[in-house]
Hints:
The protein has 264 residues and is of the alpha/beta class.
Amino acid sequence: MSMAAEIGIFGSTGLYEFASDLEDVTVETPYGPPSDQLTVGEVEGRRVAFLPRHARDHSIPPHMINYRANIWAMKELGVTRIIGPSAAGSLQAHVKPGEFVVSDQFVDRTSGRKDTFYDGPITTHVSAAEPYCPELRPHAIAAGKDAGITVHDSGTVVVIQGPRFSTTAESKWFTSMGWEVINMTQYPECFLAKELGICYVNVALITDYDTGVVTGTESVTHANVLQMVQQNAENAKKLILEFIKRIPAERGCDCANVLAQSRA
């Protein structure tokens, strides 16, 4: 069985249920081990690699994930498109728990994470103006709506360092800026994919309102998040399955040409 794959998915082991001919594969990278073994299988005639970004036992917190190793491992298997579903909080009242957001921008509020493959000697400046693949995003939106899921077709995700949640003051600040989603893993994951010329799309699975966003709601807790994650899981699988069916065989975007635009 070939270990090559064209589509990669970061997510929990529950997302593997619709795949067939599954086989685990260990990938070594120059950046150390990825979060776990990758699982390669077939979905709708497409070769798909799955990797739980927090490890299968959810033992790796967001600030300790080896993002470079995870993205490099996908590249080693031949992946050219990555779907990055992620649990996230809402920063706006109209984005409700249980709904999904296909993000189109991020704001980085992390610190100290290894966030580039290009430490020299060739100076490389990759633009992050459009961090998510413009070809894949519309397919993700359409897939969710066809599956009967409430999907917001744009949204800015502010990425915090974790593992702590926001203070009320921070949350109010993020809300006042008009940002829609808060998460701990989108950066540098999506940007590292872009650096390697891999198309990346995020689907934010809204689990809660962040602290202080909606008057009268409880402060976000880990227990509340896990409860909604479980409720969102089935819808996430429906969207991803429909999304894979829609991904074009050939890339029509410019994501693969990033280096030609990033070096003198």
